[in-house]
C-alpha cells in the first residue's frame, strides 16, 4: 500500500478568517488532523482556529491530539517528537493522508519541522502550506509598516549576545515571545541611541488581543514586539 | 456623508488559493477594487490573483488600475502616489469603501503604505489585512525551514554596506528581488566562511515557478533567495 502524504499546514495567528483558501480546502479533504496540545486537557490553539472548517466537512475525520510538553528538557522533547512521528507513521502507512496544523507558518519556529524530519527519513512525502506569520499579523493589527524602501528587518525568538552586535545595522526588529526575555531586550533596545517606535501585540488577532505602545511585562505566551528605528 | 473605509489587503505571493478567507470576503463585499499596474497595458499581478473571487461577486464592482511607474525617480513616484490617493479619495468621499490589493503583505515592502499615508492625513480610516509574504511562500515551496530554535533571521530588499557587518550574527538570510543585486550579494555570501545552503525561488507559487539550489542569474522580477548558515 502506498504511504499517505503529510501536510505541514500553517493556520495563521489566531483569527479563523486568516486561514488561506488552500489550507481550508486541505483540512476538508484530509483523513487525519494532527494537532498537538501543549498541556493535557488544554485544547490546541491551532485546532481551535480551524474547528469551524472541520465542522463543515461532509465526512468525519480523525483528530489526533498528542501532548507536546512545554519544557526545555531536550530528551523529553525528542521523545514527544519520536512518539508523534510514530503515531503519524502508523496512519500514513495505512494509506491515509494527514495534516499537521501549526500556528503561524510551518517554516517559522514551528514544532512541525522536528516531526517532519523524522517522517521524511522514513520516505514520507511532505507538502508545506504557508500561513500568515505572527509578525505580519502584529504589524497589520498595529497599523504600522514592517519594512519600506531599503529597510533591513531582523526577527529574533530570544535575546542572545548577537543582538547588540547586529542591532546598529537594523531598521526593524521583530522580537517574538517577548515576555520570556523582556529585561534583557529592553536593556538592549534602550542602549541604541536612535529614536524608535515600539509596539507590542499580545494574542494577536485572537479574541483577547491587546495592542500596546512600548513593551508589556506580562507572561502571556503569544506576545510579539516590533521596534522600528528612525533613520 | 461619511467617508468610506480603505482596506490595504495582502493577496499573497501568486497562487490564488493562498488568499485568506478574510481577504476573499472583503473583496466580495467592497465597492471599489484598486489594483495599480506597473506597466501600461500589463494587468496587475495582484488583480490576477483575485480575479476569480471578483468573478464570483453577486454585485458588480468598479476596478481602478492606475499606472505606478517602475522608476527610481522620486518625483515621478511621489506624483503617482499623489494621483492614486486623489483618485481613491474621490471614491471614498462618496461613501464608497475601497480595497487596495497588494502582492504579499501590505506591511512588507508594499507601495500601499505610500498611498495610505496620504489618505490617513485626510482622515480616511484604513484597515490592513495581512497576506502570505513571499519569503514564507518560498521556504514552504522549497521545503526548507526558515527558522528553528534560537535562529536569527534577516530580510533584506537589496545589498548595502550594512549586510557584511551584520551577516556573521545571522542564521538565515532572506534576500528579496535577488536579480537586482546578484553580484554583490554572491560576493558577500561567499566571504562568509560558514557552510551554507542556498535556495532561490523565482515567481514563487505562480504557474512558471522555478526552484533552484544556489543563486540564479536572471532578470525576472519576482526572485527571492534563502541562505541558511550551518551552525
Automatic annotation (TrEMBL), chains A, B:
Residues 5-216 form the Tetrapyrrole methylase domain. Pathway: Cofactor biosynthesis; adenosylcobalamin biosynthesis. InterPro entries: 4pyrrol_Mease, 4pyrrol_Methylase_sf, 4pyrrole_Mease_sub1, 4pyrrole_Mease_sub2, CobI/CbiL, CobI/CbiL/CobIJ_dom. CDD domains: Precorrin_2_C20_MT. Signal peptide: none annotated. Keywords: Cobalamin biosynthesis, Methyltransferase, S-adenosyl-L-methionine, Transferase. It holds the Pfam family TP_methylase. GO terms for biological process: cobalamin biosynthetic process; methylation. GO terms for molecular function: precorrin-2 C20-methyltransferase activity. PANTHER family: COBALT-PRECORRIN-2 C(20)-METHYLTRANSFERASE (PTHR43467). Belongs to the precorrin methyltransferase family. This is Precorrin-2 C(20)-methyltransferase. It comes from Methanosphaera stadtmanae.
Amino acid at each position: 500500500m502506498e504511504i499517505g502524504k503529510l501536510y505541514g499546514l500553517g493556520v495563521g495567528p489566531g483569527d479563523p478568517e486568516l486561514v488561506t483558501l488552500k489550507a481550508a480546502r486541505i483540512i476538508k479533504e484530509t483523513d487525519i488532523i494532527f494537532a498537538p496540545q501543549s498541556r493535557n486537557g488544554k485544547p490546541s490553539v491551532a485546532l481551535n482556529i480551524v474547528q469551524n472548517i472541520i465542522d463543515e466537512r461532509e465526512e468525519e475525520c480523525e483528530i489526533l491530539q498528542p501532548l507536546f510538553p512545554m519544557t526545555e528538557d531536550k530528551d523529553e522533547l525528542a521523545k514527544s517528537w519520536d512518539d508523534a512521528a510514530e503515531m503519524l507513521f502508523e496512519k500514513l502507512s495505512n494509506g491515509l493522508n494527514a495534516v499537521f496544523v501549526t500556528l503561524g507558518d510551518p517554516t517559522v519556529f514551528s514544532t512541525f519541522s522536528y516531526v517532519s524530519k523524522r517522517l521524511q527519513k522514513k520516505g514520507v512525502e511532505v507538502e508545506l502550506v504557508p500561513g500568515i506569520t505572527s509578525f505580519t499579523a502584529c504589524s497589520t493589527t498595529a497599523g504600522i509598516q514592517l519594512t519600506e524602501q531599503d529597510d533591513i528587518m531582523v526577527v529574533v525568538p530570544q535575546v542572545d549576545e548577537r543582538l547588540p552586535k547586529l542591532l546598529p545595522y537594523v531598521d526593524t526588529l521583530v522580537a517574538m515571545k517577548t515576555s520570556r526575555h523582556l529585561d534583557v531586550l529592553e536593556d538592549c533596545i534602550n542602549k541604541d541611541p536612535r529614536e524608535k517606535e515600539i509596539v507590542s501585540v499580545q494574542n494577536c488577532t485572537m479574541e483577547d488581543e491587546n495592542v500596546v505602545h512600548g513593551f508589556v511585562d506580562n507572561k502571556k505566551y503569544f506576545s510579539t514586539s516590533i521596534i522600528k528605528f528612525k533613520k
